[in-house]
Design brief:
The protein has 212 residues and is α/β, with parallel strands linked by helices. Helix content is 44%, strand content 9%. It is built from ten helices and five strands. It has a five-stranded parallel sheet with strand order 3-2-1-4-5, sandwiched between helices. Helix 6 links the parallel strand 2 and strand 3. Helix 1 runs antiparallel to helix 6 and helix 3 packs across helix 4.
Length: 212
């Protein structure tokens, strides 16, 4: 048993990643983000040191919390107190196990910085549905959305979860008939951002970059 009060947040995430079977991850379209990838993307997405730091950072498909932990580190490196940094992040995930992992990883991060854990910063919810009413409009959205293809996924009759299929139907002009979950989450995140200062950095599959 890992003690969250002494553990490295990355050790918590890695342990839970290894506990999930490949078949389980594929069924959810969940692919865990290596630390180096999360750090590189976050470094590119954050404004340079000396400029205004993000006021609210969201990972709408946070999984075990990799991007949330990196965002917290980036905020602290820019002079934001650890307790305030925890108030500036929010994570959503549809999977209860992923939410539990992310909460434990953030608790370990908080303990290492000597502040109170805030498990409510990560909530179990579908990012394609309503976001918590208490959340402000984000000025940075980071993450690694699920990559399930509607042509191969067994998630539902149309190859996508119902909420994703409904979102694609509402935005058929932008997404077209074969948009996968990554494209759907990308458009959803863009709609959620602050229209003036918003920044968006999501991992996307090559198939999406090559498609029209």
């Amino acid at each position: 048993m890992i003690n969250p009060r002494t553990a490295d947040p990355w050790a918590i995430m890695r342990t839970d990643e290894l506990a999930a079977s490949t078949a389980e991850r594929a069924a959810r379209g969940a692919w865990y983000t290596p630390r180096a990838v999360a750090e590189q993307i976050t470094a590119l997405a954050f404004p340079p040191v000396g400029e205004a730091t993000p006021l609210f950072v969201v990972d709408p498909t946070c999984g075990g919390g990799a991007f949330l932990v990196v965002a917290l580190d980036a905020l602290v490196q820019r002079g934001v107190p650890a307790e305030e940094a925890l108030r500036r992040i929010g994570g959503l995930d549809i999977d209860a196990g992923a939410v539990d992992t992310a909460r434990r990883a953030l608790a370990a991060w908080a303990d290492r910085h000597g502040v109170r854990a805030r498990p409510e910063r990560v909530q179990q919810a579908d990012a394609l549905g309503p976001w918590p009413e208490s959340w402000p409009v984000p000025d940075l959205v980071l993450g690694n959305p699920p990559f399930a293809s509607p042509l191969r996924s067994a998630a539902g009759p149309a190859g996508l979860p119902p909420a994703a299929e409904a979102f694609r139907a509402r935005h058929r002009t932008e997404l077209g008939p074969y948009a996968d979950l990554a494209a759907i989450h990308l458009l959803n995140a863009a709609h959620r951002l602050d229209a003036t200062t918003g920044r968006l950095a999501l991992v996307v599959p090559q198939s999406m970059l090559a498609g029209r």
